[in-house]
Structures are given as structure tokens and as C-alpha cells.
Task: inverse folding
């Protein structure tokens, strides 16, 4: 009996959907999955190994030869560089340059040295930008010149996320673990040894990262790290890794128990990974201590997410510590997860999102939703107010003070829901401190508050502070742009019939929703992005200090 035969009908549906798209995107010349974006193709190592898992689960004729091709193409992109900060990571594609070696003594630099270097670089580039835009002959080329300066830096020094991605190790190792666990007797001896060697290199780099904390781990990576420490600690005969898995999980659970919240709080994209990964601990570990720790964390995250879930809209209300699109079906695996766990009868919706290619891995785990949480995900919330505190993780913050205490507030009804956050010091552009959802005839309308550079670039900034408060449909948001360069604060509105939106200084008349607005802010620019989206852009300019602080008072009424 194949693994596919053991799946539930819902599991088979999810695997078939993912497998069809992965097979169509497989490039036999590269031996990797390659997606088309605009006019170019983009290789994805994660998707490539998810395709390998699909083939393994189906176990059809020729599958294992193709699996070997994929695995060898992935392994060829791993970097073996002991002593470097990027040891064991993987390049994204065959044409990506290697990070510069011998240029960063991160052990001697230390956490505070890294933070000081980050802040110094930001101050230098901010000042450089101001000089460029003030120079008559260079102002038009300011963006291109700044890009050259950044390129000079990344050519000289390995810069996390620019020249290497540490998180890719965990995602790929999750796939390695399942190929080794379920491919016993089917993998060639040579490939098995090479996968184990690749896993050792990646784990060496990953353990160094977590112990030095040079680049902090977010919650989803922490969950994978715990599982992988235990799994490969046993497989590679490294008992110290298994001990570290338990102590790391205990520390993580202790931090969680302080406020019953993870650092990536109310973050559907990442919490879906948390929950699917913690189920792997229960299914594959033989450490009862680790299983108990993982189960307590797992059940807690389920309850946290249930607090903010609105069954009537099939979405989580904000605010979000990290998010991409607001529509849950666009950039999370939660719809797929709920379809699998709750079943076709109770939850038939499973739109294919960019995260659905993760399903072949997810289906090899063991997701367990508490019974009371099932009711919460199926029973509509009529008029519910949620107020929760949590400690965030600011990846680029002061390492001695990078876990600010935040408060998230949400109001949820079947037709309208909104949320705001205060206390965050996170410079991440993924922070969503204010969000609004309302029901339309054919879907949902949304409003979100974000910030970016004047050219539209979404980037990390030290920092723009948001302080939100709400009482049901009445929201206030204070914005303090403590930055050394110009930024735009903007509300992005997305809804059907966006071309009919009427905007005035005191009111936004949206299809199905009216927003009464008192904005103590510069006059905005209205920019229509497409047929469904427009932005209200408020400029914060350092040459006009009074624009660096803004206040928005909003009252929401369905119309």
C-alpha cells in the first residue's frame, strides 16, 4: 500500500492539486521546479522537493529515478563553508553567486556588533540618499546610485536575506527528513548518504545560528528547528542535538506561556507552518518529553488563532505581526489545513494559494485540532471583542531589547471586522497594525495600513511606530515616523467596484462601507493601482517635521 492509499479523500484531493501544478512547472533540463513570473522563470528549491515528496507518496513507475534527479540538483546548490555564517545554506538557483567568504567574523562581531553595523549602514545610506536628492545632477539617478552602493556592500560582505537565506535550510531539511524516513529501501545508497551529508552540513549551520542568535529565528523556523534537531540528532547519532531540541522547546514554551502567545502572533501565513510542523514531532519523535512540549504549544496556537478567526468571512481578523495578502486563501496553507482536518462536509473550501505547494509535506504530518477549537472554527462570531498581549520578535532590533510588549485588539461580526495594534517596535514591512474587512456581495473588501519608501519599495525601516486603539467600529491610529528619510504612510483599499469609491477629507464612501475620517495628517494622494485597489498615500517628509507624526480617527459603518 502506498502512502497515497493511506490518505483521506481530502488528503488525496490536496495532493492531487499540488502535484498537478508541480509537475507542470518541473523543468527536466534543470531537474528543478521553475515557476514563470512575468517574462522570466524562477527556480524554487522548496517546490522542487515538494514535487519529490509528491512522487514519493504516489510511488508510481519511474518516480524514484526522478526523485534522485531532483535531490541531486538541490544538493548541488548547497554551500559547504565551515566557519562562515552561511555554512550549509542553499543557493536559490544555479546562477546565484556564492556569498563572499572570509569577510565576516561573526563570532567576534557578536550580536551587538551586528546590530550596530545594521544601524550604521542605515544611517549612512539615509544620509547618502539625502545628499543625492539634494544634488542637482544626481537627484534623478538617486535610486540607481543607491542600488550600486548596496551591491558594493553585498559583493564584499555576506548580508542575510540579500546574499544568503538561512531559513531555506529548515524548509529543505523537512523534505530531506521525509525522503529519508519514507524512502528507506527505495533511495539509492549513494543518494541516501548524500542526503545525510547535506543534512549534517545544514544542521551544523542551523545549530550555530540558533546558539549564537546572530540572525534570530522566527516562530515557524523555531518549530522546524526543534523537529529537525530531534530527527537528525537520532539519524546522525548526535545526542547533543536531541538534548538541545528538548531544552530549546522548553525555552520556547516558557516564553509562550508568559502571555499565551508566540512572537509571530496572529500571523496566518506562519502559524500554519507552526501547526503543521509541531504535528511532525508527535508522529515521528520517540521523545515523550518533546512530544508533550510540542503538543502544549500546538494546542495553544490553535486556540490563539481561533480567537481571531471569523467563520462568516473564512478569514482571520488582524492585526498581524507578519502577513502578506489579507485574504487567507491567497498566501497561507490554512484553508488547505482546515479542509483536511475538518473535512469536506464542514469545510469544503480549499482555494489553491502560493502556499498550497507545501501540501505534500503537510500531509505527511499529523495535525490535531482540539475539539473545542473545531467548534470555534465553525460557529459564527456575532459581536466579539478580542484583546491580547504578546511579545514580538524584532529580527533587526537591539538584541538586548528586541521583544517589545504589544497589544492586539480586534472586533469581529459576521459582516464587518477590524483590528489594531500598539506597542510594536518591529521594523518589518510585513507588520499590519490596522486592518478592516467587510462583506461584499461577491467577496470581501479590505483596508490595511502600511508604510513604504516614496518610490513604493517595501523595506525594513528603523522604525515607524504605530499606536492603535479601538472600541468596536471606532478606531484611532497614531503614527510616529522616527526615520531619517522620507516615507509614505498609506491605506490600501481593495474591494469590488473600486472605481466607484468617493474620497473626501472627512469621508470615504466605499462599496458597502462608509468610513468617517478625521485625519491629522498631510493631504493625501489618491493612487488607483488596479480595478480593485487604490491607495490613500500620506507623505512623511523629514524636511517637514510636522508630517512625521500623524493621527487617524475612523468610524466604520456598513452601507
Result:
Amino acid at each position: 500500500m502506498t502512502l497515497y492509499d493511506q490518505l483521506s479523500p481530502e488528503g488525496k484531493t490536496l495532493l492531487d492539486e499540488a502535484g498537478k501544478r508541480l509537475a507542470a512547472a518541473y523543468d527536466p533540463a534543470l531537474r528543478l521546479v521553475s515557476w514563470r513570473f512575468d517574462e522570466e522563470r524562477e527556480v524554487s528549491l522548496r517546490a522542487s522537493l515538494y514535487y519529490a515528496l509528491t512522487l514519493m507518496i504516489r510511488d508510481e513507475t519511474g518516480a524514484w529515478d526522478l526523485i534522485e534527479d531532483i535531490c541531486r540538483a538541490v544538493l548541488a546548490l548547497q554551500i559547504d563553508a565551515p566557519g562562515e555564517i552561511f555554512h550549509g545554506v542553499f543557493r536559490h538557483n544555479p546562477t546565484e553567486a556564492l556569498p563572499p567568504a572570509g569577510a565576516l567574523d561573526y563570532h567576534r562581531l557578536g550580536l551587538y556588533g551586528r546590530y550596530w553595523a545594521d544601524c550604521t549602514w542605515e544611517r549612512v545610506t539615509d544620509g547618502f540618499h539625502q545628499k543625492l536628492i539634494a544634488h542637482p545632477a544626481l537627484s534623478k539617478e538617486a535610486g540607481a546610485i543607491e542600488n550600486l552602493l548596496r551591491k558594493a556592500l553585498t559583493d564584499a560582505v555576506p548580508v542575510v536575506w540579500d546574499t544568503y537565506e538561512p531559513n531555506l535550510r529548515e524548509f529543505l531539511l523537512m523534505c530531506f527528513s521525509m525522503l529519508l524516513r519514507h524512502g528507506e529501501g527505495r533511495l539509492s545508497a549513494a543518494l541516501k548518504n548524500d542526503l545525510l551529508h547535506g543534512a549534517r552540513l545544514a544542521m551544523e549551520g542551523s545549530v550555530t545560528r540558533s546558539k549564537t542568535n546572530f540572525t534570530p529565528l522566527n516562530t515557524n523556523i523555531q518549530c522546524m528547528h526543534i523537529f529537525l534537531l530531534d530527527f537528525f540528532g537520532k539519524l546522525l547519532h548526535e545526542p547533543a542535538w536531541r538534548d538541545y531540541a528538548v531544552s530549546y522547546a522548553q525555552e520556547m514554551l516558557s516564553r509562550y506561556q508568559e502571555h499565551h502567545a508566540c512572537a509571530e502572533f496572529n500571523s496566518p501565513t506562519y502559524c500554519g507552518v507552526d501547526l503543521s510542523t509541531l504535528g511532525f514531532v508527535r508522529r515521528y519523535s520517540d521523545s515523550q518529553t518533546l512530544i508533550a512540549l510540542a503538543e502544549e504549544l500546538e494546542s495553544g496556537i490553535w486556540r490563539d488563532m481561533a480567537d481571531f478567526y471569523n467563520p462568516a468571512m473564512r478569514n482571520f481578523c488582524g492585526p498581524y505581526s507578519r502577513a502578506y495578502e489579507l485574504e487567507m486563501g491567497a498566501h497561507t496553507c490554512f484553508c488547505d489545513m482546515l479542509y483536511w482536518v475538518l473535512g469536506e462536509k464542514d469545510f469544503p473550501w480549499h482555494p489553491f494559494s502560493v502556499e498550497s505547494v507545501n501540501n505534500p509535506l503537510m500531509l505527511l504530518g499529523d495535525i490535531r485540532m482540539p475539539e473545542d477549537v473545531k467548534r470555534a472554527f465553525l460557529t459564527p462570531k456575532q459581536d466579539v471583542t478580542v484583546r491580547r498581549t504578546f511579545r514580538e520578535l524584532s529580527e533587526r532590533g537591539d538584541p538586548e531589547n528586541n521583544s517589545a510588549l504589544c497589544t492586539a485588539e480586534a472586533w469581529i461580526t459576521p459582516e464587518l471586522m477590524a483590528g489594531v495594534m500598539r506597542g510594536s517596535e518591529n521594523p518589518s514591512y510585513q507588520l499590519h497594525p490596522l486592518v478592516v474587512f467587510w462583506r461584499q456581495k461577491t467577496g470581501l473588501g479590505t483596508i490595511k495600513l502600511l508604510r513604504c519608501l516614496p518610490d513604493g519599495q517595501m523595506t525594513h525601516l528603523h522604525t515607524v511606530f504605530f499606536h492603535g486603539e479601538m472600541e468596536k467600529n471606532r478606531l484611532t491610529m497614531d503614527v510616529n515616523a522616527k526615520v531619517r528619510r522620507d516615507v509614505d504612510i498609506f491605506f490600501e483599499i481593495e474591494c469590488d467596484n473600486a472605481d466607484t469609491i468617493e474620497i473626501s477629507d472627512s469621508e470615504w464612501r466605499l462599496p458597502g462601507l462608509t468610513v468617517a475620517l478625521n485625519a491629522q495628517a498631510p493631504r493625501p494622494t489618491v493612487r488607483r493601482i488596479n480595478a480593485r485597489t487604490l491607495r490613500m498615500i500620506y507623505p512623511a517628509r523629514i524636511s517637514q517635521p510636522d508630517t512625521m507624526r500623524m493621527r487617524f480617527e475612523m468610524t466604520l459603518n456598513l452601507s
Q: What stands out?
A: DSSP finds 15 helices and 19 strands in the chain. The mean pLDDT is 94. The CA atoms of residues 278 and 295 lie 7 Å apart.
